[in-house]
Amino acid sequence: EAQVTQNPRYLITVTGKKLTVTCSQNMNHEYMSWYRQDPGLGLRQIYYSMNVEVTDKGDVPEGYKVSRKEKRNFPLILESPSPNQTSLYFCASSTSHRGVSNQPQHFGDGTRLSIL
Amino acid sequence: QKEVEQDPGPLSVPEGAIVSLNCTYSNSAFQYFMWYRQYSRKGPELLMYTYSSGNKEDGRFTAQVDKSSKYISLFIRDSQPSDSATYLCAMSSAIAGGTSYGKLTFGQGTILTVHP
Q1: CB atoms B97 and A50 under 8 Å
Q2: What is the maximum alpha-carbon separation in chain B?
Q3: Are B73 and B63 in contact (CB under 8 A)?
Q4: Cβ contact (<8 Å) for A56 and B99?
Q5: I need a surface site. Which of A104, A114, B7, B106 has the fewest CB within 10 A?
Q6: Are residues B108 and A41, on separate chains, in Cβ contact within 8 Å?
Q7: B51-106: per-residue pLDDT in tens?
Q8: pLDDT tens for residues A73-92?
């Protein structure tokens, strides 16, 4: 089954404790992206990756890091989490053509992070 | 001003009603217009996808795009309780190179409840 898998689905942690949210896709997609979803703001892009070792900032990258060492995986790293990073996070993937993400983007089921 | 504004709702309608969901946008470069449906505790899934202006119909769903007015709509006919979800409009400029890379810009989402 084609899917985007995120782990963990839920996490409560404390300020400053480094955490990693993993994302894996089994569709051989080049393009992967992280979004956060907040009430009244919709989904906003944090980082994206066009292929292995190619990543770039989205609209709200501050406080986050990513890496793309393998095509299927795109982890999101919070080096020193703060309460304003409490949110619902989604990973997405898609094929791409000439450097542009195709539609649809396939989304994981989300990771709810609470930073105390 | 946000690039994409979506009527926030929430909307509550009886089964069988026609539902109209709307978004306006300010970025003239947007060429691809999408509607995503998001059930509780799930990631968004693509519902409708249109390129440039015009109408697209798929079963009970019709998507309309008016680029001259920078306005898009999703109509749901004969609404069903299973249509109860959050509906998100999303847009992309799909510019190869540069900073877009097909990034999706989302509206805030409209919560729809269809009651029997």
Answers
A1: no
A2: 48
A3: yes
A4: yes
A5: A114
A6: yes
A7: 878 899 999 999 999 999 999 999 999 999 999 999 999 998 765 444 445 678 89
A8: 999 999 999 999 999 999 99
